[in-house]
């Protein structure tokens, strides 16, 4: 399902600027034709990451930062419930997450000043406040560059799309492989370029590869010297290897998941996407983006949350955290859950909440980050941080550190300008040493 923001821009079309416009996600052959291996990150518990993007801006006051003592103009319709961690309370419509709150940390009082969807998305997706002169790479592009993946699978996968220009100044070779759809319960997912459709068999693919080999022999050094032709041959071979790889096919096949794990998840698209993310991590993919849109609740805030969004979030995230633990991968998989901003503490006349970046929540888990705690605090009406706020930059620096990536490492832009991965952030000692 494609969600449209209140500004009329489809989420997948955010900030497609300049020469990279429209290349945010690629088919399998396209992805492979641009992918390259980056350096390996330093020692850390996190060896892979899952980034859950809550497009539209979820209400912090109705999910993970309720204020039951706030005035009726602010507090909303939902009640708090206790979690399995003494002293931590969250929304009554997140009961499954309440039972596994020991597995993740809640960040409250995260704060910035960008109230536009596209700008907030870029900030929370990179840890760098957007500036007109430079497009910063998102987490997935950096991880794809820094952490070496397996041969048979992409390093960076987006389910179903990345949502905006993900590579910034790093270039499209570090962009995501977009699945283009979401998985169905108990089924093998059909992926563009990976599935054999319309009667095409592996024998047909083999014959094509033999034709390519004969072409290479006929044209000899000319094909090798021409960069485009040589690239087509090199990455075509990789696409061919993936198509023949049982590991690649099995990674996207939910019917191969054990019953003990698959039953942890709901049947909705987001839950099944979270299940797929665990399988991809298990198969060697380094970074997966999972999307749950629709949080732009200017109207009908509580019915939308109660009837649709909270149940999906609850089922998908609780399944994700629990499945990673059951598979023995939670400690080695860094998880980051965020929207682009929070929503106004004061209820609008339309019966909803509007854009509000001054206070929001994030969730983090795994990768050596300490769960079962609340870090930061908002004030009595959730209008801003109570004391010192948490910046998106600091969250980003923490996330990278959990993966063994130095957030202060410098890259060079195409013009030769040195830029740190995260310019101003500092890892948070409450989460990671």
Provide structural commentary.
- It is a single chain.
- The chain is of the alpha/beta class and 433 residues long.
- It has two domains: 11-192 and 257-420, 3-Layer(aba) Sandwich (Alkaline Phosphatase, subunit A); 195-251.
- Helices cover 31% and strands 13% of the residues.
- It is built from 13 helices and 14 strands.
- It has helices at 28-34, 72-75, 95-98, 117-124, 139-146, 202-219, 221-225, 227-244, 246-251, 259-262, 269-283, 301-326, 392-402; strands at residues 48-53, 80-82, 89-91, 104-110, 156-159, 177-178, 287-291, 333-338, 342-343, 355-356, 360-365, 373-375, 410-412, 418-420.
- The strands form four sheets. An eight-stranded mixed beta sheet has the order 6-5-7-1-8-11-4-12, with helices on both faces. Strands 2-3 form a two-stranded antiparallel sheet.
- It is globular and about 60 Å long.
- Mean pLDDT is 85; it is low at 11-24, 35-43 and 222-235.
Number of DSSP helices? 13
Rg from alpha-carbon coordinates: 22 Å
Order of H and E elements: HEHEEHEHHEEHHHHHHEHEEEEEHEE
Q: Provide mean pLDDT, rounded.
A: 85
Strand ordering within the main sheet = 6-5-7-1-8-11-4-12
Number of domains: 2
Q: Estimate the helix proportion, in percent.
A: 25-40%
- Describe the largest sheet: 8 strands, mixed
CATH architecture of the largest domain: 3-Layer(aba) Sandwich
How is the CATH topology of the largest domain named?
Alkaline Phosphatase, subunit A
Tell the overall outline: globular
Low-confidence stretches: 11-24, 35-43, 222-235
> CATH top level of the largest domain?
Alpha Beta
Distance between the termini: 40 Å
Count the strands? 14
The secondary-structure class comes to alpha/beta
| Estimated share of beta-strand residues | 5-15%
């Amino acid at each position: 399902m494609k969600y449209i923001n209140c500004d009329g821009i489809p989420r997948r079309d955010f900030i497609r600027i300049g020469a990279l416009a429209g290349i945010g996600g690629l088919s399998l052959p396209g992805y492979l034709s641009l992918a390259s291996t980056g350096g390996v990150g330093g020692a850390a518990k996190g060896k892979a990451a899952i980034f859950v993007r809550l497009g539209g801006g979820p209400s912090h006051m109705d999910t993970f930062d309720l204020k039951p003592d706030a005035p009726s103009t602010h507090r909303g319709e939902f009640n708090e419930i206790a979690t399995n961690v003494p002293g931590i309370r969250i929304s009554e419509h997140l009961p499954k997450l309440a039972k596994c709150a020991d597995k993740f940390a809640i960040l409250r009082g995260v704060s910035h000043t960008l109230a536009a969807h596209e700008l907030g998305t870029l900030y929370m997706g990179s840890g760098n406040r957007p500036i007109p002169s430079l497009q910063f790479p998102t987490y997935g592009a950096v991880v794809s560059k820094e952490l070496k993946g397996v041969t048979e699978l992409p390093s960076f996968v987006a389910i179903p799309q990345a949502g905006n220009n993900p590579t910034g100044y790093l270039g499209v070779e570090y962009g995501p492989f977009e699945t283009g759809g979401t998985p169905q319960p108990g089924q093998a997912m059909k992926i563009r370029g990976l599935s054999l459709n319309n009667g095409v068999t592996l024998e047909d693919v083999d014959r094509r590869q033999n034709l390519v080999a004969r072409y290479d022999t006929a044209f000899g050094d000319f094909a090798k010297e021409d960069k485009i032709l040589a690239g087509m041959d090199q990455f075509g071979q990789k696409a061919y290897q993936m198509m023949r790889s049982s590991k690649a096919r099995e990674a996207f096949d939910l019917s191969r998941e054990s019953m003990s794990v698959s039953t942890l998840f709901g049947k909705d698209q987001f839950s099944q996407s979270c299940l797929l993310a665990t399988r991809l991590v298990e198969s060697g993919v380094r970074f997966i983006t999972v999307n749950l849109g629709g949080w732009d609740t200017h109207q009908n805030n509580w019915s939308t949350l109660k009837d649709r969004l909270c149940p999906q979030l609850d089922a998908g995230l609780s399944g994700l955290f629990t499945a990673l633990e059951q598979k023995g991968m939670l400690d080695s998989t860094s998880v980051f859950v965020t929207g682009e901003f929070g929503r106004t503490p004061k209820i609008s006349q339309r019966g909803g909440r509007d854009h509000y970046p001054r206070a929001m929540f994030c969730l983090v888990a795994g990768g050596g980050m300490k769960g079962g705690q609340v870090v930061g605090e908002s004030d009595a009406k959730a209008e801003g941080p109570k004391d010192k706020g948490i910046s998106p930059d600091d969250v980003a620096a923490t996330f990278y550190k959990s993966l063994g990536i130095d957030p202060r490492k410098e890259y060079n832009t195409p013009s030769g300008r040195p830029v740190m991965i995260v310019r101003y952030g500092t890892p948070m000692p409450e989460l990671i040493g």
